[in-house]
Write a structure and sequence with these properties.
- With 205 residues, the chain is an alpha+beta fold.
- The protein has helices at residues 2-5, 10-18, 20-40, 57-60, 66-84, 87-96, 102-109, 129-150, 179-200, and strands at 45-54, 110-113, 118-126, 162-167.
- The chain is elongated, with a radius of gyration of 25 Å.
Length: 205
């Protein structure tokens, strides 16, 4: 069995690189398998809504240094992220959308992107496109409302911060993962496994 653990020889590598039929047919078979997985077990749809967050640095820190402003942005961003993922916000989303649970939202159904000054993108994944759009819209709307009610309080964000929902989610037409990704991954995985079998598991003559 030592041949199983021995490294491939130069001849093995040359033979594999010259096997254009293997690469062509293997890529095709792998892509077809990836497509089959995509249609048999499709990924969920992904919808997104946008909230514009303005920290108003000129008013909050009119005479401070860049370093102080950096720490201000970092601190306030963390507060806003905590609000976005707070139980109060997520429970409100659950109450508005009865087909989901709090555990669903905390386990990857929601995704927050670009947490900084500017547009915050609220993504929601679901196998029902209408449900995905409803989740994203509700989450972003409740987030903006909570900032309005909490800003200026002891544990809330700075009173100069403003947040407004600029884009509500529309029912998505596309899945969260594109078909091309499944085709590419399927081809790569099939060729990798095929190469391993050829190089390591063939019995020497």
């Amino acid at each position: 069995m030592t041949w199983l653990f021995s490294p491939p020889s130069i001849d093995d590598l040359i033979r594999l690189l010259k096997a254009w039929r293997f690469w062509s047919i293997g890529a095709l078979i792998g892509a077809l398998l990836g497509a089959a997985v995509y249609y048999i077990v499709p990924p969920p749809y992904r919808a997104h809504a946008t909230v514009l967050v303005d920290f108003n640095l000129e008013q909050a820190w009119p005479k401070e240094t860049d370093r102080q402003q950096f720490y201000y942005l970092e601190r306030e961003t963390r507060k806003l992220e905590e609000i976005a993922w707070s139980d109060m916000v997520l429970e409100t989303v659950v109450e508005t959308n009865r087909n989901v649970t709090l555990q669903d939202l905390q386990n990857g159904k929601l995704v927050l992107s670009q947490p900084a000054e500017g547009g915050w993108h609220f993504y929601a994944d679901d196998h029902d496109p209408e449900q995905a759009a409803a989740l994203a819209s509700t989450w972003s709307e409740v987030f903006a409302e909570q900032i309005y009610f909490r800003k200026g309080t002891t544990e809330g964000p700075n009173s100069f911060i403003e947040a407004s929902q600029t884009q509500t989610a529309q029912a998505p037409r596309d899945r969260s993962i594109a078909l091309s990704t499944y085709l590419f991954v399927g081809a790569v995985v099939f060729l990798t496994i095929g190469s391993f079998l050829v190089l390591f598991l063939h019995k020497p003559q």
